[in-house]
Amino acid sequence: MTRPRLAALAAVLAGACTLAACSAAPGSGGPAAEQAVAPTVTTSVPAPTRDVDAVTWNLATGEPATLDPSMAGVESISTIVANMCEGLFTLGPDYRLQPALATGFTHPDPLTYVIGLREGATFWDGEPVTAEDVVYSVRRILDPELGSSWIGWAVNLDTIEATGDGEITVKLKKPDVMVPNFFAMPSFFVVQKAFAEAAGRDFGTAKSGVMCTGPYKYGSWTQGQDITLTRNDAWWNTAVKPRIKDLRFTFVADPSAQTAALASGDVDGQFIVPRAAHEQLAAKGNMLFGTSLSPTFLAVLNPDGALSDPATRQALQALIDYKGIIGSVYRGTAQPLRALVPPAAWGYGKEIFQAEYDRLPEPVQDLEKAKALVGRSARAKEKIVLAYLTASEEETRIATAIADAATQAGMTIELKPLTGEQFGAVFAAPQARAGLDLFLVTGYLDFPEPLSYYQFFTSGSFYNFPGYENKEYDTAILTAMTTEDPDARAREVAKAQSIMAEDLINIPIATQYVNVYYGPELTGLVPRQSYLNTPWATTLGGK
Questions:
Q1: N or C: which end of the chain has fewer CB within 10 A?
Q2: Which residue has the higher pLDDT, 293 or 423?
Q3: Pick from 209, 61, 190, 214: nearest CA to 135
């Protein structure tokens, strides 16, 4: 679901030195910042013209723990499962809903969605997809014991029932405009009830595999080595012919080893390519970039102490070397952010969002302003503990740069590196946040609906870690959640965005581009954030 995805944080990305060492003096716009050139955004590529027997694709974030679609909130799982399992709808190139296992839905009143299922769709074993399978799949995810993060979509769910042989009906307790987006997410990915029940706890493991309906069938899983998928030639979607027969996934996590495998052709492609390898690989094959729905930001964890004073948060915003981060850390493959949700995630009301976004202050380093704010605030001089994911070279460099700039401004930031396990615990357990004041986060939205992130900061939300409360903010978000008119909803969300920007409950830093590399003999794949939930391999094939 739309939440701070941990997947984007797990990649270990190459970098030769820290930002402080690579860039010129903070705010000087020195050589490192100037040399970075924003990449060309790819929106289309030539379609494939020939079939390919086999493609090897590497998972930059390592081997998945499972292939259970209910757990597809982690990049290593999502990247594979998106090619095997399907929802009732899928996302098109413009992120709009397109029919998949459903042919459409009606919305007879604000609390009801009636979904018509596709006739003739079958699982890989030839058994037909039934309304019972669909309802079972959704209810399975709603079981708290399963531990699926996708359960969050159903906060306003009343019932989901089969109301005919080819029909299911979703009833809500109160209106929620975000619900239809989840029809295309793993929250509605359909698995075969009989297979899942027979597999029990082994469902999704190397022992059992899965049973879905998508364009690629589960083949084999040699743990520690690879996972193979095979084209499903009985796929219901005859309008799309996958060109790749066999798809093999490897799990190389070391950036240097990834680069070597891609450059040699031992691996044909990969998402999240190490930045140090971009230029080298661009000379060999297709090194492509696309706009993303991903923000990197500082999140307040502790509402007391130093960060309880707005002057402290304002000083932090002023001391960040945005230009240096974009140029030196991201090497030009990112853009600075004025608000938490990046512009690419404005799925409606774009003119309204743009006008309000332009009114927000441009993110520019101003050390003198930071020093002045610190000079007027006793709280700003107190120690701030900043946590970040140590496995991410980029996050390490950004955190180090922020701490160095804070010292120049008269502040004290203590860095707290976290392992992947510790990092994940911060999102799940209050005790894991004890002693932490600030958190460097990279996440992404699953679909272009700004509400999906801004709702996290309403009073009482699970992800509202600092206990932020602003009645005006809550009212704007709750009004937007029940407003179906796009422009009216955009005005409410933009209002909440401005309130958040003033209160600085989080400090946006940048939005990174999606990137992908594949060899010169391949074509068809356009980099989009939706690769995590749509069958991206069906677009790839030979030139």
A1: C
A2: 293
A3: 190
41 inside domain: no
Q: pTM (2 decimals)?
A: 0.89
User: CA-CA distance, 251 to 287, in Å (whole number)?
Assistant: 20
What's the gap between Cα 231 and its chain centre? Answer: 27
Please check whether residue 85 lies inside any domain of the structure. yes
Q: What is the pLDDT of residue 453?
A: 93
Contacts of 123 (CB under 8 A, 6+ apart): 129, 192, 195, 211, 212, 213
Per the model's pLDDT, the better-predicted residue between 428 and 275 turns out to be: 275
> For residue 328, how many other CB atoms are within 10 A of its CB?
29
How many helices and strands in the chain, by DSSP H and E? 17, 21
Return the higher-pLDDT residue of 228 and 35: 228
Q: Rounded distance, CA 287 to CA 279, Å?
A: 8
> Are 340 and 508 contacting, i.e. CB atoms less than 8 angstroms apart?
yes
Residue whose pair of structure tokens reads 């003033």 in the numeric block:
502
Domains contained in the chain, number: 2
The phi and psi torsions of 490 (rounded to 5 degrees) equal -60, -40
User: Could you tell me the two tokens for 237?
Assistant: 């979607």
Encoded tokens for 214: 């998508």
Task: Provide the domain limits for residue 320.
Answer: 298-510
Q: Which of 141, 175, 198 is the last residue of a domain?
A: 198
**Is 340 a member of any domain?**
yes
* Both tokens assigned to 492: 């409410």
Question: What's 41's DSSP letter?
Answer: B
The SS3 call for residue 159 is: strand
Express each pLDDT in 418-473 by its tens digit: 988 898 889 888 999 999 999 999 988 999 999 999 999 999 998 899 999 999 99
Answer yes or no: is pLDDT of 23 > 60: no
**CB-CB contact of 224 with 63 (8 Å):** yes
Which CATH number fits the domain that encloses residue 94? 3.90.76.10
How far apart are alpha carbons 22 and 69 in whole angstroms?
42
Q: How far apart are CA 506 and CA 438, in angstroms?
A: 9
Within 13 Å of residue 495, how many CA atoms lie on the same side as its CB? 17
CA nearest 277: which of 292, 264, 290? 264
Domain boundary (155, 181, 198) is at 198
- pLDDT class of 36 with cuts at 50, 70, 90: low
Report d(CA 101, CA 121) in Å as an integer. 7
Amino acid at 524: G
Least confident span in 112-126, 308-322, 416-430: 416-430
pLDDT 10s digits, 380-398? 999 999 999 987 889 999 9
